[in-house]
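The following record pairs a protein chain with its ligand, flavin-adenine dinucleotide.
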Amino acid sequence: MSADQRGENRYDYLIVGAGYAGSVLAERLASQHGARILLVDRRPHIGGNAYDEPNEAGILYHKYGPHIFHTNSEQVSDYLSQFTEWRPYEHRVRAVVRDKLVPIPINRTTLNELFGLDLKTDEEAADYLASRAEPVEDIRTSEDVVVNAVGRELYELFFQGYTRKQWGLDPSELDKSVTARIPTRTNTDDRYFADTFQAMPANGYTAMFENMLDNPLIEVRTGVDFKDIRDSVDYDHLIFTGPIDEYFDFRFGKLPYRSLKFDHQTLETERFQDTGTVNYPAPDVPYTRISEYKHLTGQQSPVTTITYEYPSAEGDPYYPIPRAENQELFKRYEALADATDNVTFVGRLATYRYYNMDQIVGQALATFRRMDEKRSAAPREAEVEAA
Ligand code: FAD
Ligand code: UDP
C-alpha cells in the first residue's frame, strides 16, 4: 500500500532521479534504516541512462546508448550482485581508420595492422611507440595525454576527430582525464576495459533496478518532475540526482553538459559487426560509434539491433564536460549545495563528474555510509546536549 493510500502523504526522503544514484540510496535507506521513500523520475521509467527494454523485434537494447558494466571495486560488484545474476562479458571495440578495422585501445596489433609492421614483443612495441611519442612536460589536456604516449599521427587518426565530434571541442580544450580513460597497450590485449569484474546483468539493467526497488517502503513514481511535486509532498530530506544548475534555477548560468542523439535500428540480419562497438574517429563521419547489443547480451535472434551515436549540443544532459572553466562554475553551484540544509546532491549530473556506473554506485554507497554515521552519532549528540 502506498503512503497516499494510507492517507500519510509523508516520507522520510524524497529522492529525485531513479538512476543508479537515486535507486542505490532508496534501497539502502529503506532496507537499512527502515526509511519511507518517495522516488520520482521525470522519465517514464526507472534505471536512468542505464535503462534497457526489449524493442518490437524482442531485442533487448539500451535506450540511452550501450552500457557495459565493469569495475575494480569488490564492494560495488558484491552490492549489485544482491539484485542480479551476471553474464560474463568482455567488451571489444574496433576503430575504422584508413579503411581498416583495428583494435582500440591502441595495442600491438593496431600498430602492426595499421603500419604493416611485425612487432613481436611488448618491448618492441614500447620502443616503437617511444620513437613516435612527443613527450609533453606538463600534461594538462586531452591532447597532451595522447601525443605524449603515441605521437601526433596516431593522435590525429584515433583521437582528434572523435573527440571533436563527441565534445564539440578540440582535445586541447578538454581536461586530460577524458582521453586518459583510454590506455595505450604494448601487448595484444584487445579488451576495451581491463577491470577485474566485467559482466552484464543477466536479465538486463532494468530488471536489476526493479529488484533493487522492490521494497514496500519505496514508492516509485515515474513521469513526475521534481518541480511539479516539490511543494505538495511532505518529506524530511531531499536527495537530488538531476543537474545541479537546474536545481538552483541556473542562478550562475548554465553548466555545459554534452548530449547525444541515438539512432536505433533493427536489421534483418543475424550479425551486423564483429565486435560490440565500432568507433568512427574520422571527422567526415557524423556519428562516433555503432554498437550491436546482441554481443553484449548474448541474445540469439535472426535479427539484430544497433545504435548510432550522434553527438549534440542540444538534448538531455548526458555528459558533464571536464574542463577548468566548467569546474569553476560547478564549484560555485557546489558551494550553494553545501550551504543548503536537508538536501544531498549525488550522481553524475548533480556532482558534475564524468563517472561510470560503478563509480556512481560507489559514490551513492559512500553517501549512504556518511548518512548512516550521522544517524548513529545523532543520539549521542542529543545526550551530550542534554547533559
Ligand atoms: P542518471 O542515470 O542520469 O539518472 C538521473 C535521473 O534523474 C534521470 O533518469 C533523470 O530523468 C532524472 N531527473 C533529473 N532531473 C529530474 C527532475 N527534475 N525531476 C525528476 N527526475 C529527474 N557507464 C559505464 O559504467 N559503462 C558504460 O558502458 C557506459 N556507457 C554510457 C554510454 C552513454 C551514451 C552514456 C550517456 C553514459 C554511459 N555510462 C556508462 C555512464 C552511466 O550512464 C552513468 O554513470 C550512470 O547512469 C549515472 O547514474 P546517475 O544516477 O548519476 O544518473
Ligand atoms: N576517444 C577517442 N577515440 C576513441 C575512443 C575514445 O578520441 O576511439 C576519446 C573521446 O574523447 C571519448 C573519450 O576518449 O569521449 C572517452 O571514451 P569512452 O569510450 O570512455 O567514452 P564513453 O563511453 O564514456 O562515451
